[in-house]
Specification:
Blueprint lengths: L2 H7 L2 H9 L2 H14 L4 H25 L3 H6 L3 H34 L1 H5 L4 H49 L17 H12 L8 H15 L5 H31 L9 H16 L4 H35 L5 H21 L4 H14 L1 H13 L11 H25 L1
Helix pairs in contact: 2-8, 2-10, 2-11, 2-13, 3-9, 3-11, 4-10, 4-11, 4-16, 4-17, 6-8, 6-12, 6-13, 6-14, 6-15, 8-11, 8-12, 8-13, 8-14, 9-15, 9-17, 10-13, 12-13, 13-14, 16-17
């Protein structure tokens, strides 16, 4: 595969990585390290392993069929399209609310808006953030998304690796205290956090159709459809990027916050200031550009990509339901409505950032098993091209991943009774 074809293929996997490396990594993985040290390292690794097949199926399905997973759901019947649209509508505002408020909090801290005006200005900054992101997607659409995300990903990689190396030099891993006495991830508030961590680590399973949509958009943009094995290599590169940075953020939380017995604040602007301020206080002023750029790049990339993914999924869902072509007006209308819904939630939760994030995470986790089952059926049934069907090891990985997701979901639902 020559360099030109590699560059033409590059895109969907990076977009997925940018979407994933946001609240799940910067917020939840950092919280896991800060509160429990390395006690939840297994959960981060298990979530990435269990969900991998279902995200990979997005690229596989698009490349083999030339259609999105959302179009594939329609082959089950109209009920499947309606179910997808309803579940997406139930989760999108919570997801975008959580992503938006964290992004705005870092922007607020970057320019000192709340400090300048003397009140919590993060909701106002969120309005500006959403307006800018929506404007970018309205004008530039996929081409702009692709270019912006690639630039952000480079900043994110350099910033996070730089901060992690600094933390490892400053604090040895052996210095990290164990989890608090009596820690039990299977009960009470600790179990709720475990589910929240797993819900978006590395991302929500129901976001897998976005991967298929972005792959199709990339093929359309470049006029080039790569061979399946090359498309999967590009996706795997993005997935490895996700896993490595998840471990980096957990390390940062454990080395810098857990070791110094520091908790993350729950307020919006205070949360951003807490992450950046505490890291730079421990590592030194030199680290501020690394930590600040990594944090803001992570959230900005996630915010833009999630807005694009949700709006496209609605337009594709409506098209599948009507057995009609995808309409740009549906995508743009969805983009505006999702932004407004997210802003309403941000106004309703102006101070408690953790509540909003945990609600989104838990909702995503609970709908993961049916989403995963639908994707597994699509890529293994007879109608799917035989040459593109998953190999035996990947099918078994999917069965084990589905069992893992279903078992934890049932445990969580039982804990609510």
């Amino acid at each position: 595969m020559n360099l030109r074809r590699i560059l033409l293929t590059l895109g969907p996997g990076i977009l997925f990585a940018s979407t994933a490396i946001g609240t799940s990594h910067l917020v939840q993985a950092t919280r896991a390290g800060a509160d429990y040290g390395f006690a939840l390292l297994w959960a981060v690794l298990a979530a990435n392993l269990a969900k991998y097949p279902f995200f990979e199926f997005g690229t596989r399905y698009a490349n083999a069929t030339g259609t999105s997973l959302i179009a594939g759901y329609r082959t089950f019947g109209k009920w499947a399209s309606w179910t997808y649209l309803i579940l997406t509508a139930l989760t999108c505002a919570f997801v975008m609310g959580g992503v938006g408020i964290v992004t705005a909090s870092f922007l607020d801290h970057l320019f000192g808006v709340s400090q300048t005006f003397g009140f919590n200005a993060t909701p106002h900054v969120a309005v500006i953030t959403f307006t800018a992101c929506v404007g970018l997607l309205f004008i530039g659409r996929f081409a702009a998304l692709d270019k912006v995300i690639k630039a952000i990903s480079l900043v994110l990689l350099i910033g996070t690796i730089g901060a992690t190396i600094g933390a490892l030099i400053h604090t040895p891993i052996a210095a990290v205290p164990p989890a608090p006495a009596g820690f039990n991830p299977w009960k009470g508030a600790e179990f709720t956090f475990l589910i929240a961590l797993l819900g978006w680590m590395p991302s929500a399973v129901d976001l897998s159709p976005w991967v298929s949509i972005w792959a199709l958009e990339r093929y359309k943009q470049t006029g080039f459809t790569p061979q399946l094995r090359n498309a999967l290599r590009e996706f795997n590169l993005g997935y490895v990027f996700c896993v490595v940075l998840a471990l980096c953020f957990l390390l940062l939380g454990a080395l810098l916050l857990r070791t110094h017995d520091v908790s993350l604040p729950s307020g919006t602007a205070a949360f951003a200031a807490g992450i950046i301020g505490l890291y730079t206080e421990v590592l030194g002023p030199w680290s501020a550009p690394f930590v600040g750029s990594a944090a803001f790049a992570a959230m900005l990339g996630t915010c833009i990509a999630c807005l694009d993914g949700f709006s496209r999924s609605f337009s594709h869902g409506i098209a599948a339901l009507r057995d009609a072509p995808v309409q740009l007006r549906h995508e743009r209308t969805s983009l505006i409505l999702i932004s407004l819904g997210a802003l309403l939630l941000i106004i309703a939760f102006p101070e408690d950032i953790r509540t909003l994030l945990d609600l989104g995470n838990i909702l995503s986790f609970c709908i993961a098993p049916p989403s995963a089952l639908a994707m597994l059926i699509l890529v293994t049934r007879r109608q799917f091209p035989e040459a593109a069907r998953p190999k035996v090891w990947l099918r078994w990985s999917a069965y084990l991943g589905l069992t893992f997701l279903l078992g934890l979901t049932l445990l969580f639902l039982r804990s609510l009774l």
